[in-house]
Amino acid sequence: MWFPRNETGFAMRKARLQAAAVVVTLSILLLAGCGQERTATTVHMVTDNGAVIIVRENRASSVVAIQVYVRDGAFFETPDETGAANLLRTLMFQETASRGPGEIQRAVEDLGGYMSSAGRHDFIQYSAIVPSDNFDEAVEFLRDGLLNATFDPERVEREKEKVLESIEDMLKRPVDRAYRLCLAELMGDHPYGRLAEGVPEVLSRLTAEDIERRYRERYVGSNVLVAVTGDVNPVAAAEKMADVLSGLKTGVRAEPVSSPVTWPTESRVVVERADVRRACQVVGFPGPGVADRDNVTMDVLLVILMEGRSSRLNTRLKEELGLVHSVGAGWYTQRHPSPLFVWMELPEENIEAAERATVELMKELSEEPVSEDELAKAKMQLKVGNIRMVETAEGQAFHDGYWNAIGGEEFASEYLERLNLVTADEIQRAAELYLGSGVHLAAVVLPD
User: Fold this and answer.
1) What is the pLDDT of residue 375?
2) Contact at 8 Å (CB) between 300 and 369?
């Protein structure tokens, strides 16, 4: 799945200030609205211990979103610790030396806000949204949870069981199971081929001591980025966050444990029978990473394939050929190259025909330019998605945190400009590079 991203395209002026070994970048955006201009300030700060803070003013509503990104996840795990980052995520902000189980979450809810977290291969994310009047109080709860977390062995075991149950439940869903099987076979030993949630046999061996050690090693200044967006004074908010993060040790910056992706040179099909209710197939093809020039082009190509009833996949596989009950496609922008995948739910007898039709459709994209109407529609959908995303405090904070966390901050700042430059010829060239050979991995999950 593509993520909407980038600024709204307004001109930006930057001034750099330096004080007390802290670098601050102020971005002044001139926003036109109802015939009037107003200014919105963005503060970018790097603290002495290496923590990164991005605070963006957004006066659209009286809320503030605070998102913490930690340089951890499957991308930074060896095979024998897969799932440790995600298990630690489920335990963070639950209990501290001074607050009992659940007190932080309940306190944030009492402020009129809520907390959540997410574990991806490239990072771990924590999010809180509160009324802007309660920003200072929420930050103090964040300080305690981030700096003073404790890990009771019994609670660790209970959380471990919950994670194992969630993995089991996920693998009962046909599309999820086929997608995970496709990744495992397509990516080989690369961390992207493993479950970000963890591998059950590895998770079962993790102890409270393992979690405590990872917390001490990974939750350090050099691994932490905080993105704040909302109805706040951005300079004061950045200083407040800097005070919180100053309590972290500098630590050692986590580095990937994987070599670059190596794509298969021959097509393969893997079949698995499982306790699922219907057949599902996922077909995976090579794709780019965040630093590749084809990143934006792949987004446009994906929209042409998957978005709406008139998309090429729906038109060909469902309406013209009648091979599938449902069909879609996805591609995640990550640090390393990631596959483009097509998923489908279908009758078992149609599996081979649907696989062939999918490969043929990809080859067509590499042989003929897409129409101008398709191109214009796809680009407009991406532009609208970007604009809608950054209209909310939560969406803007995610935009800033996500792209900085995966190393795509410079790319993201140029996204709309690069999107405008995508042509039908560029799409054809990218399709030829990634899809034209027809090399793919088909993963099929069938009911027992």
Assistant:
1) 96
2) no
What 3-state class would DSSP assign to 352? Answer: helix
Distances (CA, A) of 420 to 13, 228, 296, 417, 426: 22, 29, 10, 5, 12
The angle, 0 to 180 degrees and rounded to 10, between the axes of the packed helices 295-306 and 372-390 is: 110
State how far Cα 246 lies from the chain centre.
Answer: 27
Phi, psi of 228 (to 5 degrees): -125, 130
- Residue 259, exposed/middle/buried by CB under 10 A (0-12, 13-18, 19+)? exposed
Residues of the chain with pLDDT under 70: 1-39
Q: What is the pLDDT of residue 39?
A: 57
Cα gap 448→438, rounded to integer Å: 30
Three-class DSSP category at 328: strand
Q: Helix %, strand %, coil % for the chain, to 5? A: 45, 20, 35
pLDDT of residue 293: 83
Specify burial of residue 363 (Cβ count, 10 A radius: 0-12, 13-18, 19+): middle
d(CA 350, CA 310): 22
End-to-end CA distance of the chain: 29
Q: Which of 274, 280, 284, 350 is nearest to 317 (CA)?
A: 350
- Tokens, residue 30: 């001139």
